[in-house]
DNA sequence: TCGCGCGTTTGATCGCGGTCAAGGAGACCT
DNA sequence: AGGTCTCCTTGACCGCGATCAAACGCGCGA
C-alpha cells in the first residue's frame, strides 16, 4: 500500500538531492537564484525564523511527507529549517525541475497543491491554538498532535516522541521556556504525562489528555495522516 | 495592464456564481459535497471560526484576488467568511470545475498554486506577529498592512480603510477589545494615527508608524500586491 | 425630538505568564 | 573521579493585558 510519502517521492526521486541531517542541523530558506522545494523524508523538522530584537520563532512542525516551498514561507531574514530528530532525511529539488515534472503529470501537480493546502490549514489551525488557548491548553494541543503523529500503544499507555526541547516548545507555542517547564511539571503531577526515556513521553490516558485541549477534535482530524491520499 | 485579480478572473468567469455582500454577511465554509473555491473580487473579508468555549477567532484577512479553498481551511466547526467592507463581491466555484480548467491550462494551475502559497506565507507571517510581538506592535502591524493595501497619499498623510471593528481587530490579533481600544487611543495620542471619517484612518507619517512594528519590512514585502504576476 | 441600542472608551483591579536568579540533573571529555 | 556545558526545574517577583463595570457617543427609528 502506498503511503503519503511514497506518492510524492517516486516522481521526485531522479531529480532530488538527498540530505541526511543530525539533530539541530539547519537548512537555509534564504532566497536562492531558483526557488527551492524540500520534501521531508524522515524525522521531524522545525521551520524557524528570528524576529528582529527578539527570540526565534518556530513557525511550524514538519513531518515526513511535508513539502516546503520557498514561496510559501514569509521573507523573514534568517528563516531556516532545523532538524529536531536525532537523524533525518530531506530531499531538495529545484523548482523549475518540479514545474517541468508537474507539466507532464497533472496528478502530481494536484498532489503537490493539495499537500501545500493541507499544510496551510495546519498553519491556520496552529494560529488558532496560539491565539485562542491558554498556556496549558497550548501545551496539551502539542502533546495531542505528537501523540497522534508518532504515538504507539503500550501497556503503560500511548508512548510518543518528544524531540523538541523546552526552548523549542516555547518558541513554537509563544510561551517562555520557564513557563513551559512549569506547565509540563503540572501535567506530570496530574498524571496526564510521564517521562519515558530521554526523548519520549507516555500518556497513560489519551482521553484525559484530549479533554485538556478544546481543539483536540480538529487537531485529530488534521493529523490523521492518510486523509489526503489519491484514490 | 492586467492585475492580479484579472489574471485569475478571466478563466473562472464562465463557471463562477457571483455573490454580492453587505457588511457582516457570512458565507459558510462547512464541508460541502464538492470542495468549493471562493475568489475575492471586491472588498475586504475575514475568515473566522469559533473556538469551543471561547470567542470567535479571525483567522485571516482576505483581499481582492485572494482564493479560499475549503481544503486549506482547518475543519473547525462553524468556520465562515465574513464581509468586512460595506459592499463586496465574491465568486464561488465548484472545485471539480476548477480542476478541469487547470488540466486544460497549466498556467492557470500554476497561478492558483502560487496564489495559495502566497496566502500561506501571509498566514505564517501573521503567526509570527501574534506569537512574537507585544500588543502595541501587533496593532501597528495591522495598521501598516492596511495602509499598504488600501492607503492613498493626501496632504494630511496616508489615508486608509479600516473596515474592522474593535472587536474584529481583537479577534484577529489575539487581544481583547478593551485593550485594542486603549492601544489605538495611545497611538492617536502619540500622533501616529488620526480618525478620518467613520471608516477611515489617516497616518500622518508612515515612517513613524513603520518604526513601531519590528516586522514592517517583511509585511511590506508580502503586501506589495503585484509581486506574483506571471511575466 | 426623544429614546433606545450598540459599539467604544476609560478606570480599577486581577491574574497569567514573563523575567530573573539559584540550584539540579545528565552527557561528555580528560 | 572531577570538571564543564547544556538543559531543565523551581522559587520570588513583576508587568502586560484580561476582566468587570460605568459612562459616553452616535446612528436610527418612532
Tell me the layout of helices and strands.
Two copies of one chain form a homodimer.
Chain A: H1 4-12, E1 17-22, E2 26-28, E3 36-42, E4 45-50, E5 56-62, E6 67-69, E7 80-83, E8 87-94, H2 95-104, H3 106-132, H4 135-150, E9 152-154, E10 157-161, H5 166-173, H6 177-189, E11 194-195, E12 200-203, H7 206-211, H8 216-223
Antiparallel strand pairs in A: 1-8, 2-7, 3-6, 3-8, 4-5, 4-7, 9-10, 10-12, 11-12
Helix pairs in contact in A: 2-3, 4-8, 5-6
Chain A binds a DNA duplex (30 and 30 nucleotides) through residues 134-135, 165-167, 175-179, 181-182, 184-185, 198.
Based on Cα principal axes, name the global outline of chain A: globular
Series of secondary-structure elements of chain A, N-terminal to C-terminal = HEEEEEEEEHHHEEHHEEHH
Number of helices of chain A: 8
Helix coverage percent of residues of chain A? 40-55%
Uncertain residue segments of chain A: none
Oligomer: homodimer
Strand order of the largest sheet of chain A: 1-8-3-6
Q: What's the CATH topology label of the largest domain in chain A?
A: Jelly Rolls
What can you see in these coordinates?
The structure is a homodimer of 231-residue chains. The first copy, chain A, is of the alpha+beta class. The first copy, chain A, folds into 2 domains: 4-105, Jelly Rolls, CATH 2.60.120.10; 133-228, Arc Repressor Mutant, subunit A. The first copy, chain A, is built from 8 helices and 12 strands. In chain A, strand 4 (45-50) and strand 5 (56-62) form a beta hairpin. In chain A, helix 2 packs across helix 3, helix 4 (135-150) runs parallel beside helix 8 (216-223) and helix 5 packs across helix 6 (177-189). Chain A is globular and about 55 Å long. The interface between A and B is large, with 49 and 49 residues.
Amino acid at each position: 500500500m502506498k503511503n503519503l510519502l511514497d506518492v510524492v517521492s517516486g516522481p521526485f526521486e531522479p531529480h532530488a538531492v538527498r540530505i541526511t541531517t543530525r539533530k539541530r542541523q539547519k537548512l537555509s530558506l534564504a532566497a536562492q537564484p531558483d526557488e527551492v522545494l524540500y520534501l521531508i523524508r524522515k524525522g521531524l523538522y522545525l521551520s524557524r525564523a528570528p524576529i528582529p530584537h527578539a527570540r526565534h520563532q518556530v513557525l511550524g512542525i514538519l513531518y515526513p511527507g511535508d513539502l516546503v516551498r520557498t514561496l510559501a514561507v514569509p521573507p523573514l531574514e534568517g528563516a531556516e529549517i532545523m532538524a529536531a530528530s536525532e537523524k533525518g532525511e530531506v530531499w531538495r529539488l529545484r523548482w523549475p525541475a518540479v514545474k517541468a515534472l508537474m507539466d507532464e503529470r497533472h496528478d502530481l501537480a494536484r498532489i503537490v497543491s493539495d499537500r501545500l493546502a493541507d499544510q496551510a490549514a495546519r498553519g491556520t489551525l496552529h494560529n488558532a491554538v496560539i491565539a485562542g488557548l491558554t498556556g496549558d491548553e497550548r501545551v496539551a494541543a502539542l502533546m495531542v498532535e505528537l501523540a497522534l503523529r508518532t504515538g504507539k500503544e503500550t501497556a503503560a499507555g500511548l508512548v510518543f516522541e518528544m524531540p523538541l526541547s523546552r526552548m523549542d516548545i516555547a518558541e513554537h507555542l509563544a510561551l517562555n521556556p520557564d513557563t513551559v517547564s512549569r506547565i509540563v511539571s503540572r501535567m506530570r503531577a496530574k498524571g496526564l504525562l510521564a517521562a519515558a526515556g530521554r526523548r519520549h513521553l507516555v500518556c497513560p490516558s489519551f482521553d484525559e489528555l484530549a479533554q485538556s485541549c478544546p481543539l483536540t477534535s480538529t487537531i485529530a482530524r488534521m493529523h490523521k495522516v492518510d486523509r489526503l491520499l489519491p484514490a
